[in-house]
Amino acid sequence: MPILVVGSVALDTVETPFNRVEEVLGGAASFFATAASLYSPVNLVAVVGSDFPQEFLDFWRSRPINLDGLQIREGRTFRWTGRYHLDMNARDTLDTQLGVYAGFHPVLPASYLESDLLFLANIQPELQMEVLQAAPRVRLTVLDTMELWIMTEYDRLTEVMKRVDVLLMSEEEVRQYTEQASILKGVRELLTLGLRYVIVKQGSYGALLFGADGTYFSAPTYPLEEVVDPTGAGDAFAGGFLGYLSTVAPRADGRYALDDLKRAVVHGNLIGSFACEDFSIARLRSLTMDDIMSRYRSLVEYSHFDPAWNSQAK
Q: pLDDT tens digits for 284-296?
């Protein structure tokens, strides 16, 4: 089933303690679309400038990614420059040039309105709300956000949260939004907004799934010997999560079975791990479903334990 994504497309310059790349493909929608298109067709809504490299458009057209909603405007494409610290978990934004993205308003082609799943990447809450209002028939809505919108658009962001099914947040963002030191207390507060599920992204430690029905699931990450570039890993996670759900049928009530949601979180972790193995979308670009399933089987083996417990053990 088709997946609709609305987000940013950028040209990134990324510096790590070990290497540097300039003006590679970046932006939340880029990572998500590349990842999710491994599973199902993707309908992309974004904006780029007239300087956007043709090679990236050609790559997307080689995949099941519909570009009817990609606006190409006269001017410069959104650019971001960042530098990672030695542990690769923290980064500094060195430069942001919005270019044509500054005036972006999403426009959904008629064909996109048949999308079953919707990912609202971490763009302005006002734009996220515009998309929700324009696509009322989607079966499942997933929202991502970022520290900037929590600080500057708290009330608007809250209104968007009340309209979606699943919220993706990092641990730091949960604490920032709820002002709760405890992640569990913070998630419980978020669920009172009407969300069905909250997924807490923990980076190299995996992800947690919480449900309004009391669901709790902890999904480990796949261990990597080397992290080359974690940029876009969270958006790749979303691509794996929604990508997997696009391949399974919901229940009669239109909702997904808990086991399918758990598997979707695991797929999200796996795709995020692949994204970290190279700069930009390079690893996602060469990724195959066989690669994903091989890593999936390994993760099951790594994380399995016997449910039996010897109460007499000391």
A: 999 999 999 999 9
Helix, strand, coil: what percent of the chain each, to 5? Answer: 40, 25, 35
Q: Could you tell me the pLDDT band of residue 306, with boundaries at 50, 70 and 90?
A: confident
| Buried/exposed code over 274-291 (b: 16+ C-beta within 10 A; e: otherwise) | bbbbbbbbbbbeebeeee
Q: What percent of the chain lies above the pLDDT cut of 70?
A: 98
pTM above 0.85? yes
Coil vs helix vs strand at 84: strand
Q: How far apart are CA 297 and CA 260, in angstroms?
A: 16
Residue 226 DSSP class: -
DSSP string, 150-218: HHH-HHHHHHHHTT-SEEEEEHHHHHHHH--SSHHHHHHHHHTTT-SEEEEE-GGG-EEEEETTS-EEE
pLDDT of residue 314: 52
**Can you give the residue ranges of every domain in the chain?**
3-303
Phi, psi (deg, nearest 5) at residue 26: -145, -165
DSSP bridge pairs for 68 = none
State the Cα–Cα distance between residues 10 and 80, nearest whole angstrom.
7
- Residues 6 or more apart whose CB falls under 8 angstroms from that of 64 comprise 37, 40, 41, 42
The string of pLDDT tens digits covering residues 62-73 is: 999 999 999 999
**Three-class DSSP category at 141:** strand
**Average pLDDT over all residues of the chain:** 95
Residue position matching structure tokens 């998630």: 187
Distances (CA, A) of 144 to 121, 183, 194, 237, 304: 5, 17, 16, 11, 30
Quote the DSSP letter at residue 204: G
Number of helices (H) and strands (E) in the chain: give both, helices first: 11, 13
What is the rounded distance in angstroms from the CA atom of residue 39 to the CA atom of residue 242? 9
Task: Give me the CATH topology for the region 3-303.
Answer: UDP-N-acetylmuramoyl-L-alanine:D-glutamate ligase (3.40.1190)
Q: Do residues 144 and 235 make contact, with C-beta atoms less than 8 angstroms apart?
A: yes
